[in-house]
Amino acid sequence: MSTSITGRSVIDELPDPEGRPPLTGDRASTGRWGDRLFGGAATSSGVLVIALVSLVGLFLVIQAVPSLLNNNVNFLTSTEWVPSGAQPRFGIAALLWATVITSVIAMAVAVPLGVAVALFITQYAPPWLSKPAAAIIDLLAAVPSIVYGFWGLNVAGQYFEPVQNFLNTYLGWIPLFKDVGTSAKSTLAFAGLILAIMILPIITAISREVFAQVPTAHKEGALALGATKWEMIRTAVLPFGKPGVISGAMLGLGRALGETLAIMILLSALNPNAAWSWSIFTGGETFASKIALNAGEFDSPQKTGAYIAAGLVLFILTFVVNAIARIVIERRKAFTE
Q: Are residues 249 and 155 in the same domain?
């Protein structure tokens, strides 16, 4: 191929029949530089996020270790919380139980309900209903958590009391449902229900987007083979959307684990001398609410380190949950491929 004095192909310099400018080496070089800049910016952003998370974890460890070394009880198994004085005694067993059980209750309610709502919007509802329903669900995510807390305390709590009484009557022999005399609107069970309402929009929105992307050929193929509407959803829609549902559930769980204001409003703090109970019909404090309620007491390195140690456990718990979700999603993708 002949070349011009500049080294570029003569054919490259011929005018395009459609009137487009000739492709020059400068334009190609600009494209490569753009790719490199974008790739470098993306890599730098990823490294920055990892560095920030690592620095936060390192800060928590450095601040917590001195207090943990001065602790006179087992930090993981004790239910005492007296971080001050010459003989500090503090453990996270009660905080861990309250945090986990409220999140489990929230997930048990929100995940099935969120998936059901997403299926209704994408597979059953007509267009004139599906769009307004999706908008209303999304608006729930914009409601501040403090509003949920006050709504639950002043409005919804009274309707949960019959449910608690029913469970106490027929399942009270089980330690999990034992009546300990706590008001129905200030229990771990009711706090979990409020958390379920809070995380419902997240799970529903992500599940809805995933279900809406199911290839039409998959659904029509199932129906063509004689499947009913539900059989088509079970064999084509749900398997395709399973990774998205898991992702939405884990995002909701992350919010439930770290929720602060609503839990502070709803849960009644237990008497420090009260006996330990496994019942979900008792009060308590989660990691987040404990730290927020006692932020004004960070008046000494020992007390501050104790609360930071509790925050470190919540940090690790959230990290482990997200890591497990990522592993499940990656395995699911590998299986489908």
A: yes
